[in-house]
């Protein structure tokens, strides 16, 4: 009998090799090389068709009821906004974020709201003890009789808790710290994360049980573990925010039950995490300017996050440089985008900025990634360069090309309407056509900065 030749294959990217290797030569993943001959016997070569029961028989799509996948609200409006209306029974939701950003606090608040509504919740913590979670719940007011806690790192034991408690919502914090005895490797490895996630997803689908998973991130911000984890789950949410500020954002990078263009705003307080239903005033510093009056180097733009419009103030500072290579420091905006705008201002507007240090930042810790903020950034830099302050009723929305043209942006009418609602009487947009015309209109209402420093 001829011997079957073994070919080893990577379960992540499909790369094949004749000899086993601990690391994939294509995607550089560790522990993902398996014998394709054995894998074929398990997953296809020797599989025999079996009779399908009536309960599992294929049905017409029109005969399937949509009531089984209806959203039910979690009790937190901003979280429901990101999920597309609420939590879907049988869905698996992955929430990732940097350490200390507040993932566990948010999910404990979700568990508390659900338990207060009569839903039995099982909160499994693999990183803390039940007493530590209880102290945090007491501080945030999340003590509910229908909220059950368990501190376990073994997958089989967690499934035993699920059978005992019979929850309607399962939260696992976190998936990288849970291990299965059926798979080799340490907790957090690709094989362990794959086994734990696939088992929990299978339990979620079989029991129609929604599962919320906490995921760790690497130093570059991506989710730790195999990329397969993001493909298996139904929803992937990213919890963002600077730990130096109290503002937090939840974004959906994948959502099988809704759109991925929504964002939820939260604020970390001493009593836990609170929703911010109207964050319009969080990214403006107009209140602090009453002491000094209008200050040069500031301009307001209107950003769009999903169906929500947010006015954001951009600040710029120009300082004469003594170094051969002037500094370009940005915070909240793309540094390469700012470098391009500096080149356009110098070439198309005649501003000699190559001898100055330029600092550009946003207010409130928000990050602007859309090109609609180009015009506000350029006007803030021009205001700082000329030392003339714009009135607090001026806003700018537009994308700037390399030729100095102002291009229209998406949802322009919605942005202008929100700016008018908030009291910005002058909105500079793509109707002016060129950057020079926009600067001419902006500086027509500007005043020379006169700051009287109080005698401290």
Q: Could you characterize what this model shows?
A:
- The chain has 456 residues and is of the alpha/beta class.
- It is built from eleven helices and 22 strands.
- The protein has helices at 36-43, 77-83, 103-116, 130-140, 155-165, 190-207, 228-232, 335-348, 374-386, 412-421, 435-444; strands at 8-10, 16-17, 33-35, 92-97, 121-125, 147-151, 169-173, 211-215, 235-240, 247-255, 263-269, 272-275, 298-305, 308-320, 328-331, 356-362, 388-389, 394-396, 399-400, 406-407, 426-428, 447-448.
- The strands form six sheets. A nine-stranded mixed beta sheet has the order 6-5-7-8-4-9-10-11-12, with helices on both faces. It has a four-stranded mixed beta sheet with strand order 13-14-16-15.
- Helix 8 packs across helix 9.
Strand-helix topology:
Layout: E1 8-10, E2 16-17, E3 33-35, H1 36-43, H2 77-83, E4 92-97, H3 103-116, E5 121-125, H4 130-140, E6 147-151, H5 155-165, E7 169-173, H6 190-207, E8 211-215, H7 228-232, E9 235-240, E10 247-255, E11 263-269, E12 272-275, E13 298-305, E14 308-320, E15 328-331, H8 335-348, E16 356-362, H9 374-386, E17 388-389, E18 394-396, E19 399-400, E20 406-407, H10 412-421, E21 426-428, H11 435-444, E22 447-448
Parallel strand pairs: 4-8, 4-9, 5-6, 5-7, 7-8, 15-16, 18-21
Antiparallel strand pairs: 1-2, 1-3, 9-10, 10-11, 11-12, 13-14, 14-16, 17-22, 19-20
Helix pairs in contact: 8-9, 9-11
């Amino acid at each position: 009998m001829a011997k079957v030749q073994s070919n080893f294959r990577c379960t992540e990217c499909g790369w094949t090799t004749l000899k086993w290797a601990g690391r994939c030569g294509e995607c550089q993943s560790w522990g993902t090389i398996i014998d394709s001959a054995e894998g074929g016997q398990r997953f296809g070569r020797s599989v025999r068709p079996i009779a399908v029961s009536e309960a599992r028989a294929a049905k017409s799509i029109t005969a399937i009821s949509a009531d089984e996948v209806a959203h039910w609200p979690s009790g937190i409006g901003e979280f429901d906004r990101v999920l597309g209306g609420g939590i879907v029974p049988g869905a698996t939701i992955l929430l990732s974020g940097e350490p200390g950003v507040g993932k566990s606090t948010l999910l404990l608040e979700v568990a508390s709201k659900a338990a207060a509504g009569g839903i039995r919740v099982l909160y499994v913590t693999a990183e803390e003890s039940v007493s530590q979670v209880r102290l945090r719940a007491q501080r945030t007011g999340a003590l509910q009789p229908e909220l059950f806690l368990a501190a376990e790192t073994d997958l089989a034991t967690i499934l035993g808790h699920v059978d005992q408690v019979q929850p309607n919502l399962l939260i696992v914090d976190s998936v990288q710290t849970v291990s299965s005895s059926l798979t080799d490797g340490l907790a957090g490895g690709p094989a362990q994360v794959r086994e734990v996630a696939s088992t929990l997803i299978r339990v979620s689908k079989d029991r129609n049980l929604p599962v919320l998973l906490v995921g760790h991130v690497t130093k570059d911000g991506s989710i730790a573990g195999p990329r397969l984890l993001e493909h298996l789950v139904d929803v992937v949410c990213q919890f963002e925010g600077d730990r130096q500020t109290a503002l937090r954002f939840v974004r959906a990078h994948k959502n099988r039950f809704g759109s991925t263009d929504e964002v939820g705003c939260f604020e970390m307080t001493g009593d836990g995490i609170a929703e911010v239903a109207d964050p319009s005033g969080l990214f403006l510093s107009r209140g602090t300017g009453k002491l000094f009056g209008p200050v040069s180097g500031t301009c307001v733009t209107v950003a769009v996050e999903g169906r929500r419009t947010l006015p954001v103030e951009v600040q710029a500072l120009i300082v004469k440089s003594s170094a051969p290579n002037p500094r370009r420091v940005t915070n909240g905006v793309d540094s390469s985008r700012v470098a391009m705008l500096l080149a356009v201002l110098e070439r198309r507007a005649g501003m000699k900025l190559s001898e100055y240090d330029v600092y550009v930042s946003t207010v409130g810790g928000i990050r602007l990634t859309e090109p609609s903020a180009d015009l506000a950034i350029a006007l803030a830099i021009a205001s700082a360069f000329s030392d003339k302050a714009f009135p607090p009723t001026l806003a700018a929305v537009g994308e700037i090309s390399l030729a100095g043209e102002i291009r229209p942006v998406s949802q322009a009418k919605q942005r202008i309407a929100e700016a008018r609602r908030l009291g910005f009487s002058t909105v500079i947009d793509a109707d002016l056509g060129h950057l020079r015309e926009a600067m001419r209109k902006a500086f027509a209402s500007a005043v020379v900065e006169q700051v009287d420093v109080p005698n401290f």
